[in-house]
Amino acid sequence: MGTLLSDKYTAWQAECEARFQQLKANEEELNRIFIDIYGLRDELTPDVADKDVTVHRVFDSKDDVPESMKGSNYVRTMRDEIVSLISYAVGCMFGRYSLDVEGLAYAGGEWDDSKYKTYIPDEDNCIPVTDVEYFKDDIVGRFVEFVRTVYGEDTLEENLKFVADALGGKGATSREIIRNYFLNDFIKDHIKTYQKRPIYWMFDSGKQNGFKALIYMHRYDENTIGRIRADYLFKMQRAYENELKRVQDTIDSSANSREVAQAEKRKEKLTKQLKETRDYDQKIAHLALARISIDLDDGVKVNYEKVQTAPDGQKLAILTPIK
Questions:
Q1: Does the CA dihedral 93-98-103-108 come out positive or negative?
Q2: What are the structural domain ranges in the chain?
Q3: How far apart are CA 294 and CA 168, in angstroms?
Q4: CA atoms within 13 A on the CB side of 257
């Protein structure tokens, strides 16, 4: 039998609440002891405000946060917890974490295949992020496989719905909502969580979402950009070209005016995306040929700029801007 994510969330929420109440009770008991010792009963109260208790407390939504917790840095919502789960899942996709070992499984140095049995990380450190499913092993496909592996096949759809409902956002299905999250919000949440020092980098062609792909900084090497260009960017361009042919066939052959109108709209978008990927290739080609290496000891900020700087000093924005 599979496991329901909703049950796991409820159990975690209860654990956090019990920890919160215990710490609050402990702090108030200590206050009472010191008040008694120093004879301050008429001057001080042992009470501790909820917002001053320094452990996390989880609420289903921001609307559920009581007035007593307003202003606390330790308020978490269901969405926050699901975002953390997704971040962990991405870590497993890249081998930073493993379902088979505790703590960090890989953060540089020598790679050890023996650490990964239950869920195998991405082989070449590049996971495409697309607006529709062009490849089975894109970020959504890998996330679905993660949820299936951890929680079971029987509860897969229920669990994907729970994730999608927690995230909110646009989409007619759970997978579409999750896809839109990865496309539009994942990297923003990641940059915020890691205080503008992201360890997962998104190659990003621009506002048309023509090409997006995630890599793990600690697995980057001098061939990474070239591999992304040859194995993923070119593949994405071919996918757009094939889709454009299919859409054009619909326009040319369909007698349904509504179907033709939808195809025309789709064609316009695909044309913009294809152009964006070709423009992007002009930038990424210089960096791929330069075979830029990084030193993890230099930190994220230095390396993030380094991989986007051509040998002649030209700045080429190929990664999502850090704001």
A1: negative
A2: 5-82, 197-323
A3: 37
A4: 0
Nearest C-alpha neighbor of 284 from the set 197, 211, 216: 211
Asked if residue 269 has pLDDT above 80, the reply is yes
Largest CA distance in the chain: 91
Give the pairing of strands 200-204 and 212-216.
Answer: antiparallel
**What secondary structure, in 3-state letters, does the chain show?**
CCCCHHHHHHHHHHHHHHHHHHHHHHHHHHHHHHHHHHCCCCCCCCCCCHHHCCCCEEECCHHHCCHHHCCCCCEEEHHHHHHHHHHHHHHHHHCCCECCECCCCCCCCCCCHHHCCCCCCCCCCCEECCCCCCCCCCHHHHHHHHHHHHHCCCCHHHHHHHHHHHHCCCCCCHHHHHHHHHHHCHHHHHHHHCCCCCCEEEEECCCCCCCEEEEEHHHCCCCHHHHHHHHHHHHHHHHHHHHHHHHHHHHHHCCCHHHHHHHHHHHHHHHHHHHHHHHHHHHHHHHHHHCCCCCHHHCHHHHHHHCCECCCCCECCCECCCC
Q: Is 75 left (phi over 0), alpha (psi -120 to 50) or beta?
A: beta
Q: Express each pLDDT in 28-85 by its tens digit.
A: 999 999 999 998 888 889 999 999 999 999 999 999 999 999 989 999 999 999 999 9
323 closest CA partner among 306, 304, 310: 304
Tell which residue, 232, 236, 255, has the closest CA to residue 244: 236
Mean pLDDT of the chain: 95
Give mean pLDDT, residues 138-159.
97
Residue with the two structure tokens 């505790």: 102
- Give the separation between CA 236 and CA 243, rounded to whole angstroms: 11
pLDDT confidence tier of residue 137, bands split at 50, 70 and 90? confident
